[in-house]
Write a structure and sequence with these properties.
The chain is an alpha+beta fold and 542 residues long. It is 61% helix and 9% strand.
Length: 542
């Protein structure tokens, strides 16, 4: 009877996982435009620029704090060349990257010694765990879908790199250095496959590091810190020498540090200035801001009447966090003497926790933005911790592992209703943007300007048929130097040209005050959100 229930629960986990993956594919292919914001739109517009200019870093493109060498825009540019559609290209690229992430995650879990069902359960937890999301003009974009599947880009690639790095690190640390044949030469144990994997991870890390410093923070420094602690402990606090082969793993980690240094030498990314916080700010961030951001990432937002569906979902998140704490105690305290696979799983959790800890340290002591997405590896650590608990309890014949799997499936089902139903069924949340783009097309206006958070959306809702530049404020028409192209502004464009100026309804008077009586600015279209003024002159300046 227990075996039958186990098979049913295993099937339920895989079915729910398939449902979530189908949802992510559908959101990318059918709802990409409905959930886009101007940050995401800029990535898609960059894909078109990469294809048009035939370079990964177009000279005319102004990046944000990070300017990618490799990312979703590079992949999407190939699909754009094949399809001619930016939205289709971005959707296909995100599906591809999301599929690679899923494959790498499952592969890594298996390599780390997790069972098939525990690996699938961990991936399902990652998909279903974070409830709520980010609301853009009323639309809900779920956290995990945003970061790893829908608009899969920056964080998905970092997660893939981290997982591959952990698996290869353990391979060279345990398999190569403690091979059964103690007399085997290093050349026999470290063959072409290992060299190719090492080179591939090094190049991958270098490419991501060239885009910015997040790879250093999330992947490289945590690996370096864990390796340093391991050497310290294994050598008896540096009191005895270790076998020379043990330092292969150290060399691998050192190569990651080198890749970060090489990436940091690249010029072209914006200077993101940070300052140290004072003691009051440090305490506030440590005990209030950071914990709140982490809980927000899991979906704890409060403001829910006790007894309704929202409060139920948030209480389930608290229950899950309690389960994670129990699992950590079980794995690191009760089961701490288990070696082999169990030891590697503990180290994996330690590495992910170190990444989380370094991020906390940076955000607590500096003025870096305390965004919830920066703590994403807390989700990974939690999912893998629960997977480890499932395998431990299953090995002991405990019925509680089945209860955990059932609870994960039930929660995943509830979260489809709570979070994903709205995301999947949204149809007209960008109607006001579409109306503006349609007006410009009907009037034959090719270029226009709006504030940043509106410009990219207007351009993308009609698949780039109109081009929208960004202004800091429509009350002072100056180019906004943030993920945009110099080709969309004078002097690359003529000053004498028919130009649309898209202004939020509440800012119409401020917009008009900057013009003299002799300057013609006609209001030619208006809806509930925007007023569109048209002039025969392009007034935007640097």
């Amino acid at each position: 009877m227990q075996s039958v229930m186990r098979k049913i629960l295993t099937a339920a986990v895989f079915v729910m996982l398939a449902v979530y993956l189908f949802i992510f594919v559908y959101l990318n292919m059918a709802k990409y435009v409905q959930h886009v914001d101007s940050d995401i739109a800029a990535e898609t517009l960059l894909a078109r620029e990469i294809w048009t200019e035939k370079t990964l870093t177009p000279d005319d493109w102004i990046g944000s704090t990070e300017r990618y060498i490799f990312g979703m825009p590079a992949v999407a540019s190939v699909f754009y060349g094949l399809t001619g559609s930016m939205t289709m290209a971005a959707g296909l690229a995100c599906v591809l990257i999301g599929a690679v992430f899923c494959a790498v995650f499952y592969f890594s879990m298996k390599k780390l010694g997790f069972s098939r069902v525990a690996s699938a359960t961990a991936l399902l937890i990652l998909c279903a765990l974070p409830i709520n999301g980010i609301r853009n003009d009323g639309q809900l974009v779920p956290f995990m879908a945003l970061l790893l599947f829908v608009f899969a880009d920056y964080y998905a690639l970092h997660a893939i790199l981290m997982l591959l790095t952990i698996v290869f690190y353990f391979h060279v640390k345990y398999h190569v250095t403690t091979d059964i044949n103690k007399t085997a030469s290093l050349r026999c144990m470290f063959g072409r496959k290992e060299i190719l994997c090492w080179a591939g991870i090094f190049l991958f890390s270098t490419a991501i590091s060239m885009g910015g410093q997040r790879c250093l923070q999330m992947v490289i420094l945590p690996m370096a810190a864990v390796e340093a602690i391991s050497l310290f402990v294994e050598s008896g606090f540096f009191s005895r020498a270790l076998p020379k082969k043990r330092y292969i793993a150290t060399c691998f980690v050192a190569s990651l540090v080198l890749s970060g240094l090489i990436g940091g030498l690249r010029k072209g990314q914006a200077q993101y200035t940070m300052y140290l916080n004072d003691s009051k700010e440090i305490m506030e961030r440590l005990f209030i801001t950071v914990p709140a951001a982490v809980l927000e990432g899991f979906g704890i937002s409060g403001n829910a009447r006790v007894g309704n569906f929202t409060s139920l979902m948030q209480m389930l998140i608290w229950a899950f966090l309690a389960l994670v704490i129990f699992a950590l105690v079980y794995i690191f305290v009760i089961d701490r003497k288990s070696g082999g696979t169990a030891a590697r799983q503990r180290e994996t959790i330690a590495i992910l926790s170190m990444s989380f800890g370094i991020t906390v340290f940076i955000i607590v002591f500096t003025t870096a933005e305390p965004a919830h997405n920066y703590f994403m590896f807390a989700w990974f650590a939690a999912a893998i911790t629960v997977a480890a608990l499932i395998d431990r309890l299953t090995a002991e014949g405990s019925w509680f592992s089945g209860v955990i799997m059932l609870a994960v499936c039930v929660f995943a089902l509830l979260n489809i209703k709570y979070t994903y139903y709205e995301a999947v069924t949204t149809t007209d949340n960008l109607a006001a943007y579409e109306e503006v783009a349609d007006f410009m097309l009907e009037e034959g206006i090719e270029y226009g300007y709006a504030e940043f958070w509106d410009a990219g959306r207007i351009a993308l809702v009609r698949d780039g048929a109109v081009t929208m530049g960004c202004s800091y404020s429509m009350s002072e028409l100056k180019m906004y130097w943030w993920i945009t192209s110099l080709k969309w502004y004078p002097p690359a464009l003529p000053e004498e040209m028919k130009t649309a100026y898209v202004v939020r309804i509440g800012k119409k008077e401020d917009f008009l005050e900057q013009f003299t009586d002799g300057e013609i600015m006609e209001l030619e279209f208006e809806n509930e959100l925007f007023a569109v003024y048209v002039s025969d002159r392009n007034y935007v300046t640097y």
